[in-house]
Amino acid sequence: MAYIYDDQNIFAKILRGEIPNQTVLETAHTLAFNDIQPQAPIHVLVIPKGPYVCFDHFCLEASEAEIVDFHRAAGEICRQLGVQPGMGGGGYRTISNAGEAAVQDVPHYHLHILAGRKLGPMLMRAPG
Ligand code: AMP
Q1: What distance in Å separates the CA atoms of residue 51 and residue 46, rounded to the nearest whole number?
Q2: Which CATH superfamily is domain 10-110 in?
Q3: Active-site positions?
């Protein structure tokens, strides 16, 4: 079963300028903006401008130019935020939810960059 991209998702509307956003960085193939419900003092979403549903869709079907642009943009955001652990920053976490198991709410690929507080263990343990 192939991915079907829903162009009515909220990030598609942001990309078309139908919904405002707090832009952090924009490049040829990538947009980054602040999450509307931040889970940490720094919570940036990085999205490709192309119609990709999730991480594996992007990795398998995006062009090399899009993939390089996306990751360079994400790195540049970490640099601009001053969170790079190798440069005296406090570190950060990147997360990308895909599909039902990960509770992906918006079906347009996005990378969360979280920082600015101790983020705790990577995953909550299941009860029991
Ligand atoms: P996910 O559950 O991984 O799909 O995450 C979707 C994220 O999008 C959540 O952290 C939401 O707070 C965020 N979000 C939803 N609508 C907006 C919006 N209009 N502007 C910025 N962030 C949004």
Answers
A1: 14
A2: HIT-like (3.30.428.10)
A3: 110
